[in-house]
């Protein structure tokens, strides 16, 4: 089963929180639903700036423990290697998950040929 090791931060990049989960979108949604779980509202963790997808849970746990011991400078260097502008990666994840969802037959507009008036 795939697992993720991620780093999430607040809007000012003051706090870097390292975590591990099996469903990244669900975890990000949890952070948005519980904004003051770890910090007050000014330091709300809401920007996913780094994540790794790892194949096994044992490897993910080892990587999580390794990244958790990193200093702030090491974490920042790791983030900047893949996300130089520290943009929120959640939008890309939402987009990718939307591609995998099969569209509903009832939600699509019907395709009908357009009729043109014939000039005589």
TrEMBL record:
InterPro entries: GIY-YIG_endonuc_sf (IPR035901). Gene3D superfamilies: GIY-YIG endonuclease. This is GIY-YIG nuclease family protein. It comes from Mucilaginibacter pallidiroseus. The lineage of its organism: Bacteria, Pseudomonadati, Bacteroidota, Sphingobacteriia, Sphingobacteriales.
